[in-house]
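Checklist before submission:
- one chain only
- standard amino acids only
- sequence pasted in full

Submission:
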Amino acid sequence: MKSHTPGWRIPFGSFLLLCLLLAACKHSQGLQQPPTDAQIRHELLGSWTLDDRSNSQEYCMMVIRLDGSFATVLNDGTKRTREGTWQVDSGILRLITTNGVATPNGFRLHAISHVDDHTLVCGIDISMAGRLRFKR
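Returned file contents:
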């Protein structure tokens, strides 16, 4: 006599269809891989202005130059600037201040979550919640 094990039994074809549907749903949600350092360096160059949706108002403008220098204009009513050098490593933009308004540790670290021709989204600083959002 054959024993029957109670429980769910899904035919292979149905299982395969379910897997394909789940994969399609993940793809349609726009899940993206984080940008590579090379992509960040390429897309980051140029002038950026603060987007109204930003969680921080620290900078009203940022300029990233090909020669490895940067300038930020503070959004504190005085339009003071910070200048220095920039680096990207492991998806983190490091702004090292060499001139202008000092930072407590001499640099800022911004984790880049998205950058393209028109939009830059990054962390406010490595230990702060929220996002800086810029546009061209």
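Reviewer check: The helical segments are 12-28, 37-44.
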